[in-house]
């Protein structure tokens, strides 16, 4: 039967507005060619859209590492392109001060050449992540630097239903929330979410069987995932630089919200309590197990979203097999820059 929709309206992409900023990055070189619409030009910076932040409210108390502008964007060659452009990201991306950009949509019908003959291409949405993996040979031939995996690995780990399949195949289910096969099997309240999607779209807290049937009557385990509701005000997002399943670098962000039961972004973050704790070795080992399973070794920048149970175990909601907003906007800018520089040093 076709999927039904409920009146509950998920919020748009959950990030608060950011101020525009000119880039504060490195080496001045020739201006980019304004004739190539797929490359950077100064008008892109002026037209970057503003968008909501992760907390769904204005960030007022969270300190940031502000970079002083040293020149106009068109006077430096990009070294890292995060694609596609996301609302409100570029001002924070540019503050990494390593010639990183988030201004290009990446038109795959006509693959662009890398600016300056060589530049990193880093996906920041699920669709682009799979497409970049599929087109990696062609993109490399055009001068782009790519760190990616087999396309089926990117797609499987980045799909919520696929993540459960992967965990079951490799004995990792204890690190995920409990899954339910359908409404009759569910323990309420629980979470109903689309198998694919970002920013909390098509994700609902359901408190009875009737709530589920208002959304859909079938597709459980394929198009829809029904899983345990994890309570608690703290949520973690850890970004990782990974090469063939080995974690090279990481940065964890701990967010605190004003409710115990929520579906992000329909909740308010207590911004001044955000911090960046070290990742315990036990949690790092769990993430490595997901990323290094035989035949499914991952390479690239990815992101784990999870809560921590009372006994200290991770409960992983999803793996984003691409750059997330925590890396692009939230973690300290020097740390984000260091991770990109480490990526570049691995593949000069």
From TrEMBL:
Annotated organism of origin: Haptolina ericina
Protein name: ATP-grasp domain-containing protein
Domain ATP-grasp: 145-348
Biased composition, class Polar residues, residue ranges: 1-10
Organism superkingdom: Eukaryota
UniProt biased composition (Basic and acidic residues): 51-64
Keywords: ATP-binding, Nucleotide-binding
Start and end residues of each stretch annotated as Disordered: 1-64
Coiled-coil region list: none
One MF annotation (Gene Ontology) recorded for this entry: metal ion binding
């Amino acid at each position: 039967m076709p999927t039904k929709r409920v009146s509950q309206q998920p919020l748009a992409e959950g990030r608060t507005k950011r101020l525009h900023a000119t880039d504060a990055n490195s080496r001045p070189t020739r201006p980019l060619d304004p004739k190539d619409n797929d490359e950077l030009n100064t008008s892109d910076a002026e037209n970057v859209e503003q968008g909501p932040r992760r907390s769904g409210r204005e960030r007022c108390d969270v300190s940031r590492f502000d970079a002083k502008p040293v020149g106009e964007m068109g006077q430096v060659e990009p070294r890292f392109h995060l694609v596609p452009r996301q609302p409100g990201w570029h001002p924070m991306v540019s503050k990494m001060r390593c010639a990183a950009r988030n201004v290009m949509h990446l038109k795959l019908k006509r693959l662009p050449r890398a600016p300056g003959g060589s530049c990193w291409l880093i996906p920041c949405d699920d669709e682009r992540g799979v497409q970049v993996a599929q087109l990696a040979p062609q993109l490399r031939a055009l001068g782009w630097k790519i760190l990616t995996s087999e396309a089926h690995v990117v797609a499987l780990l980045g799909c919520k239903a696929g993540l459960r399949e992967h965990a079951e195949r490799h004995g990792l289910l204890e690190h995920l929330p409990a899954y339910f096969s359908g409404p009759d099997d569910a323990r309420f309240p629980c979470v109903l979410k689309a198998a694919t999607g970002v920013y909390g779209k098509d994700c609902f807290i359901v408190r009875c069987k009737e709530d589920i049937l208002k959304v859909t009557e079938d597709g459980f385990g394929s198009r829809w995932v029904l899983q345990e509701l994890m309570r608690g005000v703290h949520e973690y997002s850890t970004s990782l630089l990974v090469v063939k399943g080995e974690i090279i670098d990481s940065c964890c962000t701990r967010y605190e919200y004003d409710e115990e039961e929520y579906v992000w972004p329909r909740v308010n973050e207590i911004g001044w309590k955000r911090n960046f704790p070290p990742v315990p070795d036990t949690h790092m080992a769990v993430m490595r197990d997901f990323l290094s399973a035989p035949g499914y070794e991952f390479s690239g920048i990815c992101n784990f979203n999870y809560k921590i149970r009372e006994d200290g175990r991770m409960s992983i909601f999803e793996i984003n097999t691409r750059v997330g907003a925590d890396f692009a906007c939230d973690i300290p800018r020097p740390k984000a820059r260091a991770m990109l520089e480490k990526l570049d040093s691995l593949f000069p």
